[in-house]
Design goal:
This protein is an alpha/beta fold. The chain contains eleven helices and twelve strands.
Length: 342
């Protein structure tokens, strides 16, 4: 693979002295075109600019080969996850989620009275689709699949996932979170939403597009579901600022930025994994911009090393095996991270 220099992206340095390896943000973003969109459009922030809403929806629909009616915007995918939680909780029942998976948002499901059904991963830290299927019953309102999975970075093969979603009855919503799919070569499941009226895909501009702080994400689903979710959103398609919408439109055109980020992430991932292995840390093969690894055979106080070196890392997700997660930052940041824990 060609080595892309991170200089080619002209990203600015953070001036806090902290190294952020906790939240899986893009260390190189926003993209140059997104930055230009922010600065060039600041003067129109006095207007609602309703027309921009239609533009971003069309740009997203085009990118995902679906119709405009299949898209709902949110202030980050978190807003969409929350709307899905509210929607499925209108009737009582249970929901099925892998363990560990991305579950901060499920507090809404719990608070609204749904019962959580956690399904352990396979021994190689993959989502166990067969066990998830077995956990679904007639009272299951929602099945959540994070693909690739956060925190483990593992991926479900597309064919297996298609078989999975077609096996589940249409009265159970299947929520597929593709926050990290752009770090893989796998195609989105967005093309299934019109034939499978119970599938919701959730995507975000927070990860490879580098717009985490701009708060923009979206749902892709069949029109009826989109309408149902929109009814629960007080500010339908308008919770995102005009600047963030314009930056997102620009980001979708910045293929060069996305492919550079992909390559940089791959290179820095390889470096980090090989160094972690030298420190006796078992690493799960990663399809994302983070690495899940075990501290079971690491012989220092990992979290103290991070704290002493002003590095924000992840927590322990599984006590057994002491599995933790680290975001892949820039090469210079990962060199500091490795030095800190050596
Ligand atoms: N989904 C997954 C799997 C995530 O890891 C995150 C953030 O880390 C989100 C959703 C939420 O992202 P945002 O609200 O910034 O779109």
């Amino acid at each position: 693979s060609p080595l892309v220099s991170d200089k080619s992206i002209n990203s600015f340095e953070n001036d806090t002295n902290l190294i952020f390896l906790r939240s899986n943000e893009n260390p190189y973003g926003p993209s140059p075109l997104a930055r230009k969109a922010f600065t060039e459009n600041v003067n129109i922030s006095n207007r609602y600019n309703w027309d921009i809403e239609a533009k971003i929806i069309s740009a997203i629909a085009l990118k995902n080969s679906v119709k405009d009616e299949n898209i709902l915007l949110g202030a980050g995918s978190t807003e969409i996850l929350d709307l899905v939680a509210k929607f499925v909780s209108l009737e009582k029942g249970n929901y099925v989620i892998a363990d560990p998976s991305y579950d901060y948002w499920t507090v809404t499901l719990d608070n609204l009275g749904l019962t959580k059904n956690r399904v352990p991963l396979t021994t190689d830290k993959k989502i166990n689709l067969q066990a998830m299927l077995e956990a679904v019953n007639q009272n299951t309102k929602l099945v959540y699949i994070c693909n690739p999975n956060n925190p483990t970075g593992t991926i479900c093969e597309r064919e297996a996932l298609i078989e999975f979603v077609t096996t589940i009855q249409q009265n159970t919503i299947i929520l597929i979170d593709e926050a990290y799919l752009e770090f893989t070569k796998q195609q989105s499941l967005s093309n299934l939403v019109n034939d499978h009226k119970n599938i919701i895909i959730v995507k975000t501009f927070s990860k490879i597009y580098g717009l985490a702080g701009a708060r923009i994400g979206y749902a892709i689903a069949n029109k009826t579901i989109i309408d149902n979710l929109a009814n629960l959103q007080s500010n339908t398609n308008n919770s995102v600022s005009v600047l963030s919408k314009l930056a997102a439109i620009a980001s979708l055109k910045d293929d060069k930025f996305v492919s550079n980020c992909y390559l940089l992430n791959e290179n820095v991932k390889q470096y980090t994994i090989s160094e972690l292995k030298k420190l006796n840390c078992e690493c799960v093969s990663s399809n994302t911009n983070f690495i899940y690894f075990s501290l079971a055979k690491y012989n220092k106080d990992y979290f103290k090393q991070l704290e002493d070196n002003k590095i924000q890392g992840g927590r322990i997700y599984e006590e057994q095996g002491k599995w933790t997660r680290i975001t892949i930052g820039k090469l210079s940041e990962m060199e500091k991270f490795i030095k800190a824990i050596q």
